[in-house]
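Record MFS transporter, 459 aa.
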Amino acid sequence: MKKRVLGFWEIWNMSFGFLGIQFGFALQGGFMSRIFQTLGAGKDDIPFLWIAAPLTGLLVQPIIGYLSDKTWSDKWGRRRPYFLIGAILSSIALFFVPYSPTLWMAAGFLWILDASINLSMEPFRALVADKLPESQRSYGFVVQTLIIGIGTWVASNLPWLVSKLGVSDAAELGVIPASVKIAFAIGAFVFLISILYTVFTTTEYPPEDMEAFREEKKQKNNFIPDILNNIGSMPKTMKKLGVIQFFSWFAFFTMWSLANPALTEHVYKTPAPAKAEFDLTITAQAEKFDVQNTAFQKSSNEVGSAMGVYGLSSMAFALLLVVYTSKRRINRKYVHMVSLILGGVGFLAMYFCNPSQLKYCFILIGISWGSILSMPYAMLSSAVDPKKMGVIMGIFNMFIVIPQIIAALGGINALMSLFGEESIYAMTIAGISLIIAGLCNFLITDKNAISYQPAQEII
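=>
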């Protein structure tokens, strides 16, 4: 099927739901560790508490990709039903996460939240490949990244903004501050509204041969054999991109899980107060806890705000790529390589920076994030069968979640122990991992994946 070249606003509409998805991911990535710490988790326990996120991705995304490939509704299309169901479940989970009274409940909500976000996210990746001709793939994924950057920046600053508007950061032992609760409620609303916008402004192409599609649906479901067959027959380019993804996502999982304890402790000098150190029945001890806890909560707001800068710089980087790729071809391989190395330098520099300099580290990290969200998918989409785009995108997610599972099951703690006991060494590990990911781009040799040729179709 010859696909129509789309204009900017059509691509914007089909990608706008990612604003809500990124609100969910940014609130989760920026503030779940803070919630865990507030509920009494030690910094060594945090990576394991995060294991729900990659595990749900490993299970959910290939299944959703496979099912969406085999779905068609004249009213709702192929991918949009999954957007909508995921948005409803994610919004409910986002709202209730900060009301968790115990660690196990917070970890459970994280599991539900991440599964629901994944239900929406992977069909969005497949939608870009479904709707756009190959010459517009880089452009489409970069527009998606632009919207993700906006969502990351705004959502990461929500608790800080809510606090500035007068909502208290103080809270009793084991209670999440009101500023975080309100921020998550706003995120839940934005998630649902942005997905609905895409659902009602975007149409999808029907299967090329509807009769053959219907006959295939009637056949016995061979989900597991089909998944295993697609894993076994994945293209070489996909495997090579998987190596790059492994080190990239190990780095970012390390940041999401440990940036808050690392930076509040090393950069802001306000670590989370340990419950065992205080006897709250003694007035002086209770007052001392309140002072330290409020300082930790406020510096956590600052860390979240600083992390939002990586969303802002990824947005600026994506905007630059949108303008460039609308008229010209790019070398995806070298763009991705340089971007990842710059992000690695940003992580390494955190060891030496003060609070006012932290934003510059996240600017560099944002450049790598903008590239991670666009270049691998653009390269992959030029190397796979378009009829299997959903399941391939879901399988590709394995290269995202497996490094996160390894990190959560002790990988981060084991590597940190080689440097010392300070949490900031987690950021050092993230920097080294991202630089390795950048250098692994030398593995990519497929010319079509590196730079798709017919640029004249792009508008």
